[in-house]
C-alpha cells in the first residue's frame, strides 16, 4: 500500500493479499479463472488506484489487470493446470510525489509497468519476465518477480530482484521512454549506482531492456 500523488491529486496504490505459493495447490488458487473476491484464499491480487483526496470518502478509480487474469472459460483449464501465478505482491511508483508509472511485481508474470498519468485508465506500457530457472532436482520452473523494486531517476533504470535469478538492472526501450514522455537519461550515475560499481558490480553487464506491452483488450489470456 503506497500513497501517491498523480496530477496534484492524492491516491492510494494498493491490492489484496494473494494465496500463498506453498503448497502447490495453493499456487493454483491464485489464478484469474477464480474470482479475486476470494483473496487471499483464491483468485489473483490485482493493484487498484483509490482516490483519497477526501480521506473520509475513498473512491476506487481503477484496477490494473493482465490478460491472463481475465475469466475466459476457453483458457481456464490450461491456466489451472499450469500453476502460473500472475498475481500482485509488491508495487511501487517512479515518484510518489509526482507519479508517472507504477511498477508491479506480478510473480510469474514478471514486472509490469503501467502508465498511471490518467488514474481512471491506467495502461500497461512495458514488461520484463525473468523466465525459467533450473531447480536443484533438475526440473525447470518459472522464476517469480515478487520483491520491491526501485527506480533510479538519474539513470532511468529499474532495480529488480527475483525469487531465484537474483538482481537485475532494467533499462527502457526507446519507444517505452517515448510512451511515458521520459526525458533523455542523464549520463551521471546516481550515488547508489556508483557505489555498486565500487563494490565490483557492473550494472551495464546485467542490464536488460523492458519490452513494450503489445497485448490489446482482445488478446487471449495466456502467460507472456
Write up what this structure looks like.
This protein has 224 residues and is of the alpha+beta class. It has one domain (2-212). The chain has five helices and 14 strands. The strands form three sheets. An eight-stranded mixed sheet has the order 5-6-7-8-14-13-12-11. It has a four-stranded antiparallel sheet with strand order 1-2-3-4, with no helix packed on it. Strands 9-10 form a two-stranded antiparallel ribbon. Strand 6 (101-105) and strand 7 (111-115) form a beta hairpin. The longest helix has 10 residues, at 73-82. The protein is globular, with a radius of gyration of 18 Å. 35% of the residues are buried.
Key features of this structure:
single chain, 224 residues, alpha+beta, 8-stranded mixed β-sheet, 4-stranded antiparallel β-sheet, 5 helices, globular, disordered C terminus
**SSE string, helices as H and strands as E:** EEHEEHEEEEEEEEEHHHE
Mean pLDDT comes to 77
User: Uncertain spans, ≥5 residues at pLDDT below 50?
Assistant: 188-207, 215-224
Tally of contiguous helical segments: 5
| Bulk shape | globular
Q: Number of domains in the coordinates? A: 1
Number of strands: 14
- Radius of gyration equals 18 Å
The biggest sheet, with number of strands, parallel, antiparallel or mixed sense and barrel status, is:
8 strands, mixed
* Share of residues in strands: 25-35%
Oligomer class: single chain
Range of helix content: 10-25%
Largest sheet: spatial strand order = 5-6-7-8-14-13-12-11
What is the distance, rounded to the nearest whole angstrom, between the alpha carbons of the first and last residues? 26 Å
Structural class: alpha+beta
